[in-house]
Amino acid sequence: MVALLRQRWSLSVSGLRCVLPLVAMLCLLQDGRSSERRVPTFEELHRELYGIEVKDDDDSSHVVVSFSNPYRLKPNFKNYPHSNLLAEFFTDLLDIIGLEGGPQFIVEVGSLHGHSALQMATVLDKLGLTRIPILCIDPFTGDTNMWASYQQDKSVGGWVNIMDGRMTVYDQFMANVQFAVNRSVSRHHVLPFPAT
């Protein structure tokens, strides 16, 4: 995917304007084909990541909306206590950065269960920015501390779920995002990108 982004949306230092807060990187990319600033749209990213053309009138074409939830996980927004990104912080960050028209593309590195991505999506929706893609990059496997501690540490065990020999981090992320997208958050924000 990075190669695709480099090829389609130049990531040269001169073409990249980024600020890296705790978990979110807001970027404006310069299209390598012209001097005009260009960012990928939600639809373009969806097509490149999943090979599916997303259609507003076809829920089966949307990777989050059509998630099958094979382990029947319930959305849970309270089981992971370490989410650092609050709506107020993200709003303040947008004010400090002061991008004219708001951010156009957000990359979150380290998404876990999706809480911070949904916080950002909620703020963007309140600002009327309902079609800003949030690319959530995470291996969605849990870290070694989670594996080492989940049986002995009840606080870790409360938000770790293992099925078929793997942590269900991706499944919990998708269940949480699907719940939010089906109820209150624009479906044109969150795009999971499972990668290390």
Structural descriptors:
7 helices; five-stranded mixed beta sheet; 196 residues; two-stranded antiparallel sheet; alpha/beta; 7 strands; disordered N terminus; globular
Per-chain topology:
Blueprint: H1 2-8, E1 16-19, E2 24-29, H2 42-50, H3 87-97, E3 106-109, H4 115-126, E4 134-138, H5 144-149, H6 154-157, E5 162-163, E6 166-167, H7 169-183, E7 190-194
Parallel strand pairs: 3-4, 4-7
Antiparallel strand pairs: 1-2, 2-3, 5-6
Please provide a written account of the structure.
The protein has helices at residues 2-8, 42-50, 87-97, 115-126, 144-149, 154-157, 169-183, and strands spanning 16-19, 24-29, 106-109, 134-138, 162-163, 166-167, 190-194. It has 196 residues and is α/β, with parallel strands linked by helices. The chain has one domain. The protein is globular, with a radius of gyration of 17 Å. The relative contact order is 0.18. The model is unreliable at 1-31 (pLDDT under 50).
